[in-house]
Automatic annotation (TrEMBL):
<dbReference type="InterPro" id="IPR020471">
    <property type="entry name" value="AKR"/>
</dbReference>
<dbReference type="InterPro" id="IPR036812">
    <property type="entry name" value="NAD(P)_OxRdtase_dom_sf"/>
</dbReference>
<dbReference type="Pfam" id="PF00248">
    <property type="entry name" value="Aldo_ket_red"/>
</dbReference>
<keyword id="KW-0521">NADP</keyword>
<feature type="site" description="Lowers pKa of active site Tyr">
    <location>
        <position position="79"/>
    </location>
</feature>
<feature type="binding site">
    <location>
        <position position="112"/>
    </location>
    <ligand>
        <name>substrate</name>
    </ligand>
</feature>
<dbReference type="InterPro" id="IPR023210">
    <property type="entry name" value="NADP_OxRdtase_dom"/>
</dbReference>
<dbReference type="InterPro" id="IPR044500">
    <property type="entry name" value="AKR5G"/>
</dbReference>
<comment type="similarity">
    <text>Belongs to the aldo/keto reductase family.</text>
</comment>
<keyword id="KW-0560">Oxidoreductase</keyword>
<feature type="active site" description="Proton donor">
    <location>
        <position position="54"/>
    </location>
</feature>
<feature type="domain" description="NADP-dependent oxidoreductase">
    <location>
        <begin position="26"/>
        <end position="263"/>
    </location>
</feature>
<protein>
    <submittedName>
        <fullName>Aldo/keto reductase</fullName>
    </submittedName>
</protein>
<dbReference type="GO" id="GO:0016616">
    <property type="term" value="F:oxidoreductase activity, acting on the CH-OH group of donors, NAD or NADP as acceptor"/>
</dbReference>
<dbReference type="InterPro" id="IPR018170">
    <property type="entry name" value="Aldo/ket_reductase_CS"/>
</dbReference>
Length: 277
């Protein structure tokens, strides 16, 4: 069982990925990004999830630098945006992300969305494989890929994606996709684990949390970990960044887990990967 903020899951290539990290979607570049990242790292987080489209890679990089924690202790993720898909453009986008972050490698680089209408995710993946084989990134993966996108990718891929970062929260628990990813040794990572704040007064989560003196957010994060899903809740508030990582001193019972599993509506809240342009 996951015991601390520094606990990791071994990806198929042996790279160790932290189970819990900080997401930074909607965190403004500059002071907000710098302070959020510093607050997280100074409170023991070692994983930060950004993306080119979040337009805060410079602030994230500055926060990493100001934290004073050495680069090799951290796990930094970014993603190639839809408009940069394609072989050469992915290589260029990777370098642009590194330059903004002020880093010389990433731990994880993801294709942000499959954008099937563009038909470019195979060539994009070839560029990801090149970056990986050249040792420029420690792990590569995808985001928002459904089973049928991965099936197509695997027909041409030399390297199976190590991660699939997808919408995952108690209202959309992706049971079939998780089983598919497990079969292919692809680690699932949750985005919007707190459903962007929409689940935090849910009565089932509140009742479960009351038993342990934990908030609904903490119950959800614990459910992620006990479900074997890497999670990256976002907050810009230091007290919440700390609270979201205070999840290692309790364990949900099988009954708690089942009650949360039953909250699944099967309806995604934030956009269908087949329709994303
Ligand atoms: N690959 C993809 O397509 C996507 C990836 N992501 C990644 O996943 C991360 C997490 O998802 P995100 O969409 O940000 O949403 P989350 O589900 O993490 O929710 C974030 C919201 O919850 C609030 N919040 C956080 N902790 C608490 C708490 N303890 N109590 C009360 N409110 C809280 C935050 O507010 P406040 O900041 O004010 O605390 C914010 O409004 C992103 O930041 C990003 O890194 C997200 C979307 C898509
Ligand atoms: O990670 C994400 C958040 O930002 C993007 C758009 O602004 C989303 O499309 C994406 O899923």
């Amino acid at each position: 069982m996951v015991k601390s903020l520094q606990d990791t899951v071994a990806l198929p290539n042996g790279v160790k990925m932290p189970w819990l990290g900080l997401g930074v979607f909607k965190v403004s570049d500059g002071k907000e990004a710098v302070e959020s990242v510093k607050a997280a790292i100074n409170n023991g987080y070692i994983s930060i999830d950004t993306a080119a489209v979040y337009k805060n890679e410079e602030g994230v990089g500055q926060g990493i630098k100001e934290s004073g924690v050495s680069r090799d202790k951290l796990f930094i993720t970014s993603k190639v945006w839809n408009g940069d898909q394609g072989y050469d453009s992915t290589l260029a986008a990777y370098q642009a992300s590194l330059d903004k972050l002020g880093l010389d490698y990433l731990d994880l680089y993801l294709i942000h969305w499959p954008v099937p209408s563009q038909g470019k995710f195979i060539e994009t993946w070839k560029a990801m494989e090149k970056l990986y084989k050249e040792g420029k990134v420690r792990a590569i993966g995808v985001s928002n890929f459904k089973e049928h996108h991965i099936d197509v990718l695997l027909d041409d891929a030399e390297i199976t994606p190590m991660i699939n970062q997808v919408e995952f929260h108690p209202h959309f628990a992706q049971k079939e996709l998780r089983a598919y990813c497990k079969k292919h040794s692809i680690q699932v990572e949750a985005w919007s684990p707190l459903k962007q704040g929409e689940l935090l007064d849910d009565p089932t989560l509140t009742k479960i949390g009351d038993k342990y003196g934990k908030s609904p957010a903490q119950v959800i994060i614990r459910w992620d970990l006990q479900s074997g899903v890497v999670t990256i809740p976002k907050s810009t508030k230091e007290h919440r960044i700390i609270a979201n990582a205070d999840v290692f001193d309790f364990e949900l019972t099988a009954e708690d887990m089942a009650a949360i599993d039953q909250m699944d509506t099967g309806i995604r809240a934030f956009g269908d990967p087949d329709k994303k342009k």
